[in-house]
Amino acid sequence: xxxxxxxxxxxxxxxxxxxxxxxxxxxxxxxxxxxxxxxxxxxxxxxxxxxxxxxxxxxxxxxxxxxxxxxxxxxxxxxxxxxxxxxxxxxxxxxxxxxxxxxxxxxxxxxxxxxxxxxxxxxxxxxxxxxxxxxxxxxxxxxxxxxxxxxxxxxxxxxxxxxxxxxxxxxxxxxxxxxxxxxxxxxxxxxxxxxxxxxxxxxxxxxxxxxxxxxxxxxxxxxxxxxxxxxxxxxxxxxxxxxxxxxxxxxxxxxxxxxxxxxxxxxxxxxxxxxxxxxxxxxxxxxxxxxxxxxxxxxxxxxxxxxxxxxxxxxxxxxxxxxxxxxxxxxxxxxxxx
Length: 338
Hints:
This protein is an alpha/beta fold. It has helices at 29-41, 64-73, 108-122, 141-153, 167-180, 203-210, 239-243, 250-257, 260-275, 280-289, 307-311, 320-332, and strands at residues 3-5, 12-14, 16-19, 46-48, 82-87, 127-132, 157-163, 185-189, 213-214, 297-299. Helix content is 38%, strand content 12%. The strands form 2 sheets. An 8-stranded parallel β-sheet has the order 9-8-7-6-5-4-3-10. The longest helix has 16 residues, at 260-275.
């Protein structure tokens, strides 16, 4: 497994990261432990979780994912595992957190409570990468960047990152850190896949110029790029099969990921993968890793049998002619996810 530097930090992470958001709801603990063990044995050193996991968020089981990861971590040397987790953003906007009775906010009070709760659930005294799960652009960045800097100075956090952030938000946070001489974001965790290349419009340039690494989530387009939703299929137990009939945020999310354009582009990606002699999963994962602004691609599975195709991407570099064909499809079917 190759490693890459995370932003301008001292951390080098495996270029595949295991995401854990399904652990404790869709994936039972015993199965999650087997998945984590296989990842560790394959050379993956980087694992991502959040105080708000598992998904979909629910106060009845929020925090369960960190607890599972924490129990697993006790079976491994702590220094051999790099753990990323996240503090919930504000509950009045993009999504309502399942933590703290849905009263989360991007302030010192929330961050200090959240870090201590995460450390307890993870059974560790420090977090390698601590991320803001989603932003609040109405709050002064000085306040929460200073609070995050305090956590670094206290030794509870090694490196800072953000998630679901905009170009403006990332640049604003970096400017504040530079102005105040405090810890900065070294990573950004945003959606990025063959079906969603919007990150390349502006944020990729920010990352290149400012020394920030993308750790993309959903490289398989929420599972769409596996091909399981092709030809009108709605597999039993699949995420968007469940989400399409749910209220609030889930149904629109299902329509964004599974629609006429995403299915049309997925058919093209599957054809290119077949030409390259790769599975769609290996192809999509390898493509995600093959960008200069990406440090580590976050993958997720619900069964250990899904890991082989992901591991196969570790040593794959797609040839220039294949990358050119990918770009041609992206120009033909623009922004499949909107």
